[in-house]
Amino acid sequence: MLSSLTRRIIAINLVGLLALVIGVTLGVISAYFRGGWADRIIRTTAVLLQSMPNFWIAIMAILLFAVMLGWLPTSGRRGLSSLIMPAATLMLFPLAAIMRMTRTSILETIESDYVKFLRIKGVSEGRILRRHALRNALIPVIALSGLQLGNLMGGTVITETIFNWPGLGSLMIESFVSRDYPVIQVGVLMISTFLILLNLVVDLLFCVVDPRIRYA
Question: Could you give all domains of the chain from N- to C-terminal order, each with its CATH number?
Answer without folding.
Answer: 2-215 (1.10.3720.10)
